[in-house]
Structure formats: C-alpha cells, structure tokens
Design goal:
- By secondary structure, the chain is α/β, with parallel strands linked by helices.
- Helix content is 30%, strand content 18%.
- The protein contains nine helices and eight strands.
- An eight-stranded mixed β-sheet has the order 1-2-4-3-5-6-7-8, sandwiched between helices.
- Helix 3 packs across helix 4.
Amino acid sequence: MRKKIYLLIICLTAALTIAAQNRVGQGTLTTHKKISTDNYDFWLYTPKNYDASRRLPLVFYLHGASCCGTDLEKVRSYGTVDALSDGMSLPAIVIAPQSQSSWEPKKLNALLEWAKRNLPVDESCVYVLGMSLGGYGTMDFVNAYPEKIAAAIAFCGGCSSSKPDGLGKTCLWIMHATADTSVDIKCSQQVVSYLQSKGKDKLLRYDWMQGGSHSVYASYFYLQKTYDWLFSHSLRDKPRQVNRTLNITGEETSNAYTTSWGTQPTNVVREETVPTTTKSATTTVKKRKEKREKRTTGRTWRNWWKVQK
C-alpha cells in the first residue's frame, strides 16, 4: 500500500512539473544542455499550438554580460525569455543561448545549423537581437554569416571587426543611447560610419537616443513591435529592403513593463550591473512600472527618443 502511495506521489509531482513547464507564457520553454561538446546551453521556446510540420521563423536572443555563466536561470533575468515567461506570445521558435564569456559566431552558427536539422525552421526568416554584450554578439554573428540572417537588432553594442562589411548585407537596426557609460556610443557609431563610407548602408537603420543610459533599451524586448520589425524581413524579399516605416515611440517604451499579455508579470527588468533577484507571483503591474520609472532618474522617455535616421 505504501509503495502504491509513493508511486502515486511521484507521478503527481512529475505531472505538475510538466504542467508548470507548459504554462510558461503562451507557449513552451525548455532547457537544452550539451547538445554537442562545443556548443552553448540554451532555452528553447515553441509557440502555442506548435506544429512540427509547419515551418516557423527562428529568433536568436543574445543576453548581456550579467547573464554569462552556467546557470540558465540567469538568462531569464530580463529580455526576450523573461517576456515570454510573462506571457508574451511570438509566432516563432526562439533560441536563447548562454555564453560563459564573449559570443563566438562559429558556435552560434553551429547552434543555427542544429536548429535547422532538428526543428521546423523557415531558413529565410532567421533573426538575431541582443543588448550590450549581446549587441556585440549580434553584430559579430551577422557580420560572419550575413547570408543566413534576414534581419537583426543590436542594442548598445558594437562589432569586434574593424571592417564589418558583412553587416551591409543584412537588414540591421542599430540603437544606442548617448549617455551610455557602460558601452560608449562610439562603438556603434564606428560601425555606422564604416558602412556609410563604403556605400554599404542601404540596409542599415540606426537611432541614437538622446540622454539615455545603458539599460534604457531593455524595455524593447517587451514590445511586440520589436519582433514585428524583425518579422517584416525575409531572405526571400526581392529586392532586400530595410523597414523604415515601423517606429517605436517613447510612449510605447514607457508602457512596456505594464503590458501583461493576458498574464500577471512576475519579473522586473534589471540593469546589467544589478544582481538578479526573484520576485513573487504577486508582483503587480504598478510596482513593475514604478521600478522602471525609478531607473530613469527623473528623465522622460519622450525626451530620450530621437527621430529615426
């Protein structure tokens, strides 16, 4: 009798664990580790009603320096994975790898090729976005493999290459804040200047946010428009054109953390220098907004926003 009760408890525990996993956001988030001896561990998101017979876009989310390590939970601190955990829904597969230091384009490409072999990826709709260290990873990845990426967004990053010609072959949106003290805006401006000097800026879009700090772009990961911009591009487009009509306003970014996507937000976006903490499920939208506003130190998002270049 005791044995039967014990087995019942194990089965119920397993069932609850699976259910909790499936309840994440509007899809499913799972962890994948050691898919090869030389690759990143990663989070994998598949949307609700996922059908392996239907090809889907693939989004790579590259985290910043504070999320480096071997604990995948760090990748959920802020950004795309956190937004998905809060209930945001994307009509795409999302891969969020974890790096222990800097991002390596070859390893990211190996992960992309794994995804193509094992998941129903629409190879004409592969996208990358990242912030800070992830912004560098985004540009380095795209620069190395521009023929594989339909569009990318790099927030407050830069490029490791002094001759990033590959970036001129992909639809790219570079954003950086003028008061960033962690990654100087010159890191992005150098990329823009190089592409302009070579006449390779036809697929380039860039914005400099006046007075913004390093963490100001964290809110963009919580906006549906950010991903809509990515999805508006495809390698099948003839001719290739960068979307210059979809804009994100200061009002939209100021309300980014109040969006609940039908579920109660449970995490708060943190600056990369702030240690990760866990918020309880009772965190309210109001508290989430107050924490964001506190980080702006009296400035307004409207004043930070500068019209698209």
